[in-house]
Design a protein that fits this description.
The chain is of the alpha+beta class. It has a single domain (3-142), classed as Archease, Possible Chaperone, Chain: A, domain 1, CATH 3.55.10.10. Helices cover 23% and strands 43% of the residues. α1 packs across α2 (58-76).
Length: 143
């Protein structure tokens, strides 16, 4: 499992994420995203949904992934806490992500909030790169 750190920003919040593999980076970023708002480990998953996304580049795929999870949270009241398996790969010059996202159905008023709700993931300050050993992501969200 990768690791994440919550970053404070003047108007928003952010995450710095590190992982050894690309699927782990996507999973750790998702875990960090929900941790900005609540402790997802308090709500063990009982259901799962398949998610498939496409994007022109890896950065756009990451933003799309995180915003898709937020959409499910807001619209369908799904609190995600586990993501497996995740596959992210380049196919014919475009990036594709498939994942099984495990969630607990929730009612927002029943949650124990630990931070402000996240409205969306932004491209502001987005950095996604790989060095010889690890993937690194820096991403900010609107709260």
């Amino acid at each position: 499992m990768g690791k994440y750190q919550i970053l404070e920003h003047t108007a928003d919040k952010g995450l710095a994420v590190e992982a050894e593999s690309l699927p782990d980076l996507f999973e750790t970023a998702a875990r960090g995203l929900f941790r900005l708002m609540i402790d997802p480990d308090r709500y063990p998953p009982t259901e799962q949904v398949a998610i498939e996304l496409h994007a022109p580049d890896l950065e756009a795929l990451m933003v799309k992934w995180l915003n898709e999870l937020l959409y499910h949270f807001e619209v369908y009241h799904r609190l995600f806490s586990r993501y497996e398996p995740i596959e992210a790969r380049e196919v014919d010059g475009r990036w594709r992500l498939t994942a099984q996202a495990h969630y607990c159905p929730i009612e927002p008023q029943q949650l124990e909030w630990e931070g402000a709700p996240v409205k969306s993931v932004t491209y502001h300050g987005l950095r996604l790169e790989r060095d010889s050993e690890r993937w690194r992501l820096r991403v900010f969200v609107d709260v």
